[in-house]
Amino acid sequence: MNIVITGSLGNISKPLATKLINDGHSVTVISSKADKQAAIEALGAMAAIGSLEDADFLTDTFAGAGAVYCMIPPNFAAPDQLGHYQTIGRSYAGAIRRSGVKRVVHLSSWGAHRETGTGFIVGSYHVEQMLNGLADVAVTHLRAGYIYYNLFNYVGMIKGAGMIGANYGGDDQLVLVAPADIAAAAAEELTAPDTEPGHTIRYVASDERTPDEIAQSLGAAIGKPDLPWVTFTNEALKSSMEQRGLPAHIIENSMQLGNSIHNGALRENYILHKPARMGRVKLADFANEFAAAFAKS
User: Which of 18, 61, 106, 287 gives a 20 to 30 Å CA spacing to 180?
Assistant: First the structure.
């Protein structure tokens, strides 16, 4: 099968491309950076260099594909996060419609069932709605949980303050997922036989843990067994982020996201539609990876 993958050689797209190539599929990887072409071709894939905002480029690249994997690369510099998602979502929808692609797998997020109140994830809600409007296309939304790699953002806080902190914590529930497990699920969906037009949702998760359990596991791995996870008030979190010079749109979206974890809104639909099987990479596995990164930082 001819399959097009977006996301360049990112943490999900690279193992996804490798898996599909090893299984005998013809793979095209889209990247906005020309210097990625050699690495893409070294995997055995074809490289398509261009912008995801260019619907004509996407239409040409999607033409003849049996399936397409669509993801929205983060752009935290964009002051209008929702606009960033919507721009690329519209580009995807238009290119899929014009190219005649019949099978689409979209990387979405837990919490994408909610139209408001989840910060950055509201963008995933809107992209889901755009893709759901495509006629005669089989669309699967992979609603991935909290990606383990987000925890790398706390390395500096651990080294500087001896803790992990957010506006959620304690016994709040986090649905964790490894990029490798997302890639495995995406490969399954892209190559699934006999898919019918319409849209379906598949949650992807590797483990379920509380912030306290996460701190305990990561702390043990880095030689800090008493590492605490501290729950900040919204005011304290905002003040801390302002002192670090973060822009207002990042602060607001981060606070909304954390609040939706704390009040359970982000997880409510996941609870009703848990995956039939969890991914292979557990928190203890990631803790070893975290420890290696922590030691090198």
Answer: 61
